[in-house]
Design brief:
Elements: H1 6-16, E1 20-26, E2 31-37, E3 41-46, E4 53-61, E5 68-72, E6 82-86, E7 95-99, H2 105-108, H3 112-126, E8 130-137, E9 154-159, E10 164-178, E11 181-189, H4 195-200
Helix pairs in contact: 1-3
Length: 203
C-alpha cells in the first residue's frame, strides 16, 4: 500500500472535478469544517483597455500538455490491470503513464476501473494546455473585489493589443496595503507548473 499526503490527494481530486475546497475552524466546537464549492460565474470583464488592470502578462504553454493517460493498476507483467482515459489523435495526441499500484481492486469492487480512470483524469487535469494572465488590478477601476468578483469565480480577461480573450477562473488573489494604499494582484487561469510542483507530482 502506498501512502500519499491527504491534502495533496484531495486537492488533486478537486482539480480534476473543477471544484474548490475551503476549511474553516470553528472555535466554539473546536473542529474544522471542510466545504466543497464551485465559484459562481461573474459578469466581470478585465482588460487594460477598460482601465481596471494596471498591468497584465499573458502566458500560453504546451510544455507539460498531455491528452491521453494510460493508467497502470495493481499486479505485474501480463497480470497488471490497465485503463485509458482522454482523447486525441495525430499531433494532438500526447500520452503519459500514470502508476496507480496503490489502488487495489479489493477496495473498489466493481468500481475499480472507474477509480483508475479518475486517477488518470486527475493527472491530466494538471497537464492541460496552460493559459494564464498574471495581472495587477486597478483598485480604483470599475470592478470591486468581493462585490463584482472573487477567488474561484469565472470571469473574462482580454487584451485587444494581443488579440486574446480568455474566459477562466480567478486562481489567485493577493491583497496588500502600504503607504501608497491597496494593491491587488490577480492570476486568471492556470499557469505553467514549477519544477517543485513537477517533482512533487512525481513527473
Amino acid at each position: 500500500m502506498w501512502y500519499r499526503n491527504l491534502m495533496d490527494a484531495v486537492t488533486g481530486l478537486c482539480e480534476a472535478a473543477d471544484t474548490g475546497i475551503r476549511t474553516v475552524f470553528n472555535h466554539t466546537a473546536r473542529a474544522f469544517t471542510v466545504r466543497l464549492y464551485k465559484g459562481a460565474p461573474s459578469q466581470a470583464v478585465f482588460s487594460k483597455e477598460y482601465e481596471n488592470l494596471i498591468s497584465q502578462t499573458y502566458t500560453q504553454s504546451a510544455v507539460d500538455y498531455a491528452s491521453i493517460a494510460l493508467i497502470g493498476g495493481e499486479a505485474e507483467g501480463a497480470e497488471r490491470v490497465f485503463a485509458v482515459t482522454g482523447d486525441g489523435s495525430g499531433e494532438g495526441r500526447r500520452e503519459i503513464f500514470v502508476d496507480a499500484k496503490d489502488l487495489r481492486a479489493e477496495d473498489f469492487g466493481g468500481g475499480y476501473t472507474a477509480a483508475l480512470i479518475f486517477r488518470g483524469q486527475s493527472k491530466l487535469s494538471e497537464l492541460t494546455m496552460t493559459q494564464s494572465f498574471d495581472t495587477a488590478a486597478n483598485p480604483h477601476g470599475n470592478l470591486r473585489h468581493k462585490t463584482d468578483f472573487d477567488l474561484g469565480q469565472t470571469v473574462k480577461v482580454l487584451s485587444k493589443k494581443w488579440g486574446v480573450t480568455l474566459t477562466t477562473r480567478i486562481t489567485e488573489i493577493e491583497e496588500s496595503y502600504d503607504s501608497d494604499g491597496q494593491s491587488l494582484n490577480i492570476v486568471f487561469g492556470k499557469g505553467v507548473l514549477s519544477l517543485f510542483q513537477k517533482l512533487k507530482g512525481g513527473m
